[in-house]
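Instructor's aside before we start: the two examples that follow are unrelated to each other. I chose them only because their records fit on one page, so don't look for a connection. First example below.
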Amino acid sequence: MIRLILADDHPVFVSGLRALLDAEAGMTVLAVAATGADALRLAVEHRPDVAVLDVNMPGGDGLTVTARMRAAGLPTRSLILTMYDDDENVLAALRAGAHGYALKGAGPEEIVAAVRAVARGEAVFGAGVAARILAHFARVAVASPFPQLTEREHEVLGLVARGLDNTAIAQRLGVSGKTVRNYVSNVLTKLHVTDRSAAIVRAREAGLGGEPGNPA
C-alpha cells in the first residue's frame, strides 16, 4: 500500500486529486494540507511513502518542505505537482531533494504513474527535463548551499550579500525594481528570516557575497 499526503492550497484541485488517488488500488491518502507548515507537520506525524506537494503555498512552499523532510531524515519521497514548467523550478526541486516533478495539466494516468514511480524509488521529471538537468550540472560543479532557492533567487541573494541595493541589483540583472523586490521577498520567506540583514548573515556564513559590502 502506497501511503500518501497531499499539500495544495487550491481546495477544488486537491479534492479531485485525492479522489483520483484514493480510487487507485494500492493507494491511500492519509491527510491533506493547505500550507507548507501543515504539510511538514503531517509528514512528521504520518511518515508517508510519498508527499505530493505544490510549489507555491502559504506557510512554506513545496521545495522548502522537501528540503526540510530530507534534513529531518524522513523516509518520505516527494513529488512536486505544479503548473510551472520552467528550468529554474525543476532544478530547484532537484536541489531540494525532490524525487519527481509533474505538471498539474498532466492526464490522470500520468499523475498516477508518477506517484507509483516515485514510490518505487524512481526519479520522474517529465519528458525533456532530464537532458536539461544533465546540461545544467555539467556547467555547475558546486552544489547550492540553499537548495530551496531557484537559480535566480540564489543569484539575488549573492548580490544582496555583496551589499547591493535593489536598484543596483535590478540594473545588474536587467529587470525591474519590483521584480527584485519580489525575489528578495521570496528569499526572506524561504530562508525563514525576517529582514535583509539576517539574510546577509546567512548568505555570508554560507560563503556567498565575496568581500562584504555595506548592506542596503
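Example two begins here.
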Amino acid sequence: MTTRSRRDQLRDNLNRTREAIAAACSDAGRTPDSVRLIVVTKTFPSSDAATLVELGQTDLGENRDQEAAPKAAELGAAGLEPVWHFVGQLQRNKAKSVAGYADWVHSVDRAPLAAALSNAANAHGRTLNALIQVSLDGDTARGGVPVADLEPLAEAIAAAPALVLKGVMAVAPLGWEPARAFALLNECSERVRRTDPGATEVSAGMSGDYREAVLAGATMVRLGRNVLGEREPMA
C-alpha cells in the first residue's frame, strides 16, 4: 500500500518532470505532446507503479523480466493496465514471458531475438511494437546492433509477422557528448525509415541527458529517479 506522503511525493515529482520535459520541448520548438514520458520503475515496488497509473502516467518501463512480469501481473489483477515498455537487454529465453505483457520492446538488437519475440507474441495472440537498439559506439556488450548492421535488422523486424517496426533506441555511450550521440541516432532513424516510413519513434534520453535528447528529436524519454527518487543499490 502506498502512503499518502509517498503518493504526494510521486504526484509532485511527476508534475515537475512533465513540466521539465515541456520546457525542453519549448526550447526545441516542439509541442509537449511530441515527447512521451516513460517512467522506469525498476527496483521500485508495484505499489509505486500502481500509484503512477492512478495519477495518470500511462507508460511504464522495466528492464528485467524477473521483476517486470510479476509487477505487470499484479497491476493487471488490480485492474490497472499501463502501457509496458521493456527497455533492457533481452535474451531469447525470456521472449515468451516478455511478449505476454510488454506493449513495446525497445531493445531488439538481433534477428534471432526478433524472430523469438514474433513467435512468442503470435502464440499470445498479440503484436509487439519493436524498436531497434543501436550500439552507437559499436560496443555491443551493453546491447545494441552496430550502426553498420542496421538495415538488415530493420528488414528482419519489418518482415516479422507479430512485430511492428516503430523506430530506434539508444543509450549515449560512456564518454560521448549527448548531442553527438543523439545526432548519430537521428541518422540511424532516417536509415530505418527507408525500410518503413512509419518507424518514426526515437527512444533516447535518461535522467542525465533527456534535455539534449529532446533537442535532438527524441519522441520518448526514459526517466526513473526524476519521478521515483534514488534507487537502492541492486543486489
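The chain has a mean pLDDT of 96.
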